[in-house]
Amino acid sequence: MSNTKLPLAVIIGMPAAGKTRVGREVAHLMNLPFYDTDDMIECDIDMSIPQYFEEYGQDAFREIEARIVREAILGDTSAEDSTKGIVSLGGGAPMREETQKVLREYMRSGGRVVYLQANAKEAIERASWNNNRPMFSGEDAQKRWMELFEQRDPVFKAVSNIHMQTKGSTPYMAAEKLRNMIMQRIVHVTGEGIEPYDVRI
Predict the structure, then answer these.
(1) Tens-place pLDDT, residues 73-130
(2) What gap in Å lies between CA 43 and CA 71, rounded to an integer?
(3) CATH of segment(s) 9-200
(4) Partners of 13 in the β-ladder
(5) Which residue(s) pair with 187 in the sheet?
(6) In 3D, which of 126, 100, 123, 122 has the Cα closest to residue 113?
(7) Under 8 Å between Cβ of 86 and 26
(8) CA dist 49 → 12, 46, 55, 106 (Å)
């Protein structure tokens, strides 16, 4: 990885947690480029993600997503770039074992994986505004969201080293808070006979 410029931070979280909006805001505050892997995937497949899901299925999509995520986080970038900036992943991306390995490798190299912890009610309300999220519309939307949360939350916590609550925050407020957390230095501590852990300085 010596020729690789790592992102300053990678953002994960539940659907409609605000990953793209907050990520874009914090990148703007820090004068950094912002990359949304969902946008990168749509450029790669030349169609919308919902359309690809319908035509080719989830397994085919997850294969492409895993490749794009790896390239976005660990792939080489141009020599004049000092960082890839801020990268936001799709809601289900960290559930794939291959992507979990990428995130852990990135953290071992000093990277910051930010788990945006959204309030269920706020996330479902945001999701209802988006026609691309039919899973979170209707009377039992909160139940479906919570079922998904129970599956994903333990994994998201395991593959991240910054956890940030967004309840009651505007995207700008959340971005300012996240900028401050990102600027803390993270040291990954390992050693014989101890469980690896991270320390923020």
Answers:
(1) 998 655 455 568 999 999 999 999 999 999 999 999 999 999 999 888 888 787 766 6
(2) 14
(3) 3.40.50.300
(4) 116
(5) 199
(6) 100
(7) yes
(8) 18, 9, 10, 26
Rg (C-alpha) for the chain, rounded Å, is 17
Q: Give the residue carrying structure tokens 């997850």.
A: 62
C-alpha to C-alpha distance for 49 and 41, rounded to whole angstroms: 8
Helix, strand, coil shares, percent, the chain, to 5: 50, 15, 35
Q: Which long-range contacts (CB under 8 A, 24 or more apart) does 182-186 make?
A: 182/8, 182/9, 182/26, 182/30, 182/112, 182/114, 186/110, 186/112, 186/161, 186/162
- Say if residues 178 and 114 touch (Cβ distance below 8 Å): yes
Domain ranges of the chain: 9-200
Distance from C-alpha of 89 to C-alpha of 10, rounded to nearest angstrom: 7
What's the CA gap between 49 and 119, in Å, rounded?
Answer: 25
Tokens 């969902």, residue located: 38
**pLDDT classification of 3: cutoffs 50, 70, 90:** very low
